[in-house]
Amino acid sequence: MSFMYFLAVLIGPLVKILYSFIGNYAATMIVATLILKLLLFPLSIHQQKSTAKMSVFQPLITEIQQKYKNDPQKQQEELMKLQQEHGYNPMGGCMPMLLTMLVLFGFLGVVYYPVHYIFGVDNAAVKAACEAIGLATTNTSTMQTALIQAIHNGASIDPSIISASVVAEIQNFNTSFFGMDMCDVPGFHLTPIAIFPAIATVTMFVSYFITQKLSGMDAQMQGSMKVMMLVMNLMFVTFCFNAPVGFSLYYGVSNVVQIFQSYVTYKIYSPEKFKAQYEAELAAKRAEKKKKRTVTVEQNGKQVEKEVTLGEANKLRLEMARQREAELYKDERTTPLNKD
After folding, report:
1. Contact (CB, 8 A) for 142 and 126
2. Model pTM?
3. One-character DSSP codes across 125-139
4. Is the residue at 310 inside a domain?
5. Burial track 121-141 (b if 16+ CB lie within 10 A, e otherwise)
6. Contact 212, 218 (CB under 8 A)
7. How many domains are there within the chain?
8. Mean pLDDT throughout 271-298?
9. CA dihedral in degrees (33, 252, 237, 208; nearest 10)?
10. Whether residue 162 sits in one domain with residue 14
11. Can you tell me the distance from the alpha carbon of 35 to that of 44, in angstroms, rounded to the nearest whole number?
12. Mind listing the pLDDT tens digit for each residue in 287-317?
């Protein structure tokens, strides 16, 4: 699953730069979380707009699905026509969710492999350093944080494996937060450090339900989609207990910011406002299609004016184009091939 951590390549250096100013790993993670949530905020607006649009077009989609339930090909054609005519993309709200998930995995990669992503040490060198000082290397998810703790406790690393300058950086890397080490893995134990995954769990549930309600997604998502979203959030909660506690700190802060963003988004860009806007646009387009217009057509060799709707006008144009094409190629179809 390491491919899911690819954003850690960007998040790791960001953490390192911020740490150079802040000087504390936990505080750096909080600031990095706030920065990334701020950068992702426009996507939250986009998702809210997509949800509002979904609420307007869902009845039309259902109508098409019922009307052509026995003709899947025609059903698909009509759905595509609906999307093209009105610029509606049913997958428009998925991209923000996908990117948010990838950022979560990016942070998870940073807290799992901080020596690699923050200090730029090759994973093979990290493993060799751990083996040299007798650290277990079977669990790669905790191996690098264990190496940081060992160096903090005075372990000596061969400069041929990891350079002395990098070891000095790691030695001065402050992972303490209120007397607790952000490299520790809380597990499912009643210890002081378990407060971080506990807070992350509570804020996850609060954030999930508030976001669903305020964004209007709760009314639009199918039951299976709701279950999938909840399962994904529970998966990240599980990571909070089994990953170094730095991830719990990120996830908890991210959830709190998400709650705040949901309220701000709702106040400024309410789903009701967007829904009314899209309903007005849809009504205007429908009215335009029904509006009569004058077109000139040829009937029995004479030019005749007709009052037609936009849809009827398009059909007439198509018929005339076919007639012109038939006239153009009439001679080619009737002329016999020359024989040698």
Report:
1. no
2. 0.74
3. HHHHHHHHTT---S-
4. yes
5. beeebbbbbbeeeebeeeeee
6. yes
7. 2
8. 69
9. -100
10. yes
11. 15
12. 766 666 666 666 666 666 666 666 666 676 7
